[in-house]
Every structure is written in structure tokens, then in C-alpha cells.
Amino acid sequence: MIRKVIIGKKEWYNRETFGLELHLPGISPLPGQFFQVRVNDNLDPFLNRPISVASYRRGKLLLIIRVVGKGTALLSRKRAGENLTILGPYGNGVKVKNRGKSLIVAGGIGVAPLYYLAQHLKKKKIDFTFIY
């Protein structure tokens, strides 16, 4: 599903990584799912950027993005209050079961979707270890 959303907040975490908080009520993305983010309305760059869900709480979707090329560089210039077109959520995601312990291992920008998984495990009171 194509959605026009407003960037509620933008925060830089370091020189190359930033987060966009989008107002998006009424969905229930699973850990491991992602959105296709349209960089702009023209055809350059042509492809959308797949960005994993880093957090979703109370109608606010957090996407954490590392600037690695032209598309993500253009996204990094977006500001709070601007519109953004996203599609999704896509992917099967991770269905959290209420048993046993979990081990989460992440590195680099790959930590973003696993943060959301850790939130789900904590909410379900499932014991886990997070290694970064």
C-alpha cells in the first residue's frame, strides 16, 4: 500500500546515520519487515530504498538510515514537516513465540531492525541476550 506520510522528527546519530520518525497510525508491522521509501517524485534515483522498521510505537514509525549513496544522501536532506511516500510493510517478519530464550546478534546498521525485535521480546517478557 502506498502511503503519504509526514516526517515528524529527524535526528542524526552520527555523521552518516540518521533516523526519521513518521506518523503512521493503524498498522502493525512485525520485527524484520521493511518499507520501500520513495526518495523523490522524479525518476532520479529510479528505485525506492528498502528500509527496515527500527521501532513502531503509538502510531510512530522509526526508520534508521545510513547514508551510503545518492538515494540515501537525498533522503538525509529531508526535514521534519516534509512529506514522504512509503510503500509497505513488506516481508514476512519474525513471529515471536512465547517460549525459550533468544540470542540476537547484530553489527553496523543491521542493528536497526533487531532493536525492534528486542522491543517485542521485552514486551512479551521473553528472555534474550543482545550481542553487538
Automatic annotation (TrEMBL):
Single GO term (MF): oxidoreductase activity
All residue ranges annotated as the FAD-binding FR-type domain in the record: 1-96
Protein's UniProt name: Dihydroorotate dehydrogenase electron transfer subunit
Record organism: candidate division WOR-3 bacterium
